[in-house]
Sequence to fold (276 residues):
Amino acid sequence: MSAGKQLVVNADDFGFTSDVNQGIIEAHRRGILTATTLMANGDAFDDAVRRARENQSLDIGAHLVLVGGRALAEADRALPSSVPRLLAAITAGRLNVYEELAAQVRRILEAGIRVTHLDTHKHTHLAPPVLDGVARVAGEFGIGWVRRPFDLPITAARGSASWGKRATSGSLAFIRGRFHRVLAKHNCRTTDHFAGFQITGRFRTSELIALIRALPEGSTELMCHPGRCTGELRNTRTRLKESREAELEALTAPETRQAVEETGIELVNYRMLDKR
Fold:
């Protein structure tokens, strides 16, 4: 990696609803968003694919879903509704992680989308059996990048994060070794740093600017969840609703762009990092 600071601003949940898709595209066209990850089982998948084709500069990855929604490997089967139920299903042999993840990646590829990176809904690839499936899929489909969901200790707005979220973020350190060994075995890369877990659903322009000004040297992925919040999103089962509008405002604010320029940060996507 070259010297300096590189920032990938990646939006989760592309394909969830059409109003979320709209907000992601706005954040890319008018703001600092450089990448997004697409939900192959999302209700607005076709709309997202159309928008991706119209915005070729937006880097597209796969947002792999094992919690919530419908399975693709087994038609009409519902995926577990929570992470504990997912882990129970895997332990009992009721869900083949690799087959489901491969089916999701395959659907995106068959739509004509180049998949440059992978992450998981609810960060389920922190669980060893899910990580093994993600790494295998990445290796077999030639996808070079996988999210490392270990938050920066300097994350802006950490103080406003709940105690539980801060404790969870801090407790992940002990699994980092195996996480990176598994990815290396399958020739997968990660950014040097990651930010966004502790401030999901609560950052505004001021917090985003503070984070930008505190970024360390090297490459960082910032996870975000911008979107428009209309009746479509309000009728879904997600806690991230009005907060998506606030994130969209932060990502498109002139002050945010100014902070990026003043700090000398290079906005990049995974296609650009591939060339480093």
Notes: The first helix runs from residue 18 to 30. Strands lie at 5-14, 35-38, 59-64, 117-120, 145-146, 193-195, 218-224, 266-267. Residues 155-159, 161-171 have pLDDT under 50 and may be disordered. The radius of gyration is 17 Å.
